[in-house]
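Good morning C.,

I know you're traveling, so I'll keep this short. The sequence:
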Amino acid sequence: MKSKKWFILLGFTLIALLSFMAVLHANEDAKMKKAEDIGLAYKNAEKADEVVAYVNNIPITAGEYLATYASVQNNFALLQQDANKLGLKGKTMVDNTSKLLNKYSPGTIALAQQLADTAAYSEAIKKGLLKSDQEVQDYIQSIRKMEESNPEAQKTIQIVGESRYFDQVQPKLLKKGLTIGALKAQVISEQKDWTQYKYNLAKNAELKVVNNELITSTKEEALKYLKEMQDVLSLKVRWLIYTSFGNIKEVT
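The C-alpha cells, ready to paste straight into the viewer:
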C-alpha cells in the first residue's frame, strides 16, 4: 500500500517537473525570439540608421523603433508565461498590463516608448546630464563579461555583427539609457514621481514623424497608452510597498 502511494506521489512529481520544464523552455524560446528580432532590427545599417521621426529635434532611427516594436511583441508572450508564476496580486498586475497590450497596437506602444524616452533624453541633455563617450565605454567594459555569458545578448550580437554592435549600436543605446538614468535619479532625489514626470515630458514634447509608412500611430494615441500605463505602474508600486511591509513573498 505504501509502495503504491509512493508510486502515485512520484508520478505527480514527474508531471509537475515536466510541466515546469515545458514552461521554462517556452520562456527561453520567447527570450531568444526577442533577441533575434531586435538583432534583425539593427542588422542592415542603411535601413536601421534611417531617421523615421524626431522628438524635440532628436532623431529616432528605424532600428530604434523596430527594436522597440519587436520587444513589445515578444514581451507580451513572456508576460503571459510569467503570469502563471505569480500570486493573485501579481497576476492582477500582469492581467492589467496584458489588457493594455491587447488594447493598443505594438506600433502605438513602440511610438509611446520612443516618445517618452527621447523626451526624457532631451530634458537630461538640457540639464547637463549627458554621459560622456568615456563613461559609456567604461560601462560597456563593465558589462562585457555579463553579455558574453548571456545567450540572448550573444544572439543579438551574432545577427547584428560584433563590430557594428559594439562600435555603433550599443554605445548609442547606452549613452541614451545612462543619460536618462541620470535624470531619473535626480528626479527621484527631489521626491518627484518619475512616471508622471516622464509623461509630462512626452506630452509637451514636439514629435515629427517623417516616415508615415512605418509609423502609423499618432502622438495622441501614444499619450493615451502612456497615461493608462501610469495607472498600472502605480498599482505595481502600491503592491510592492504592501508586500514589503506585509512580508509577502509573492514577487521579488
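Safe travels,
E.
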